Amino acid sequence: MWYAAVTMDSRNADIGLLTKPSNLSRDTLPKHLNKRTRLPSDTGCGRFASNPRSPHIKAPTALTPSSFQRGLGALVSRDPDLARVVDRYGPPPMWRRNPCFATLVRIILEQQVSLASARAVYLRLAELVVPFSAVRFRQMDEAHLKSAGLTRQKLAYCKHLAEAVATQKLSLTRLNRLPDAEAHKALVQMKGIGPWTADIYLLMALRRPDIWPRGDLALKAAVKAVKHLPALPSEERFDALGRAWRPWRAIAARVLWHFYLSSRNDKVTALF
Question: Which of 45, 111, 208, 221 has the CB geometry, 3.0–4.6 Å to 98, for a possible disulfide?
Answer without folding.
Answer: 45
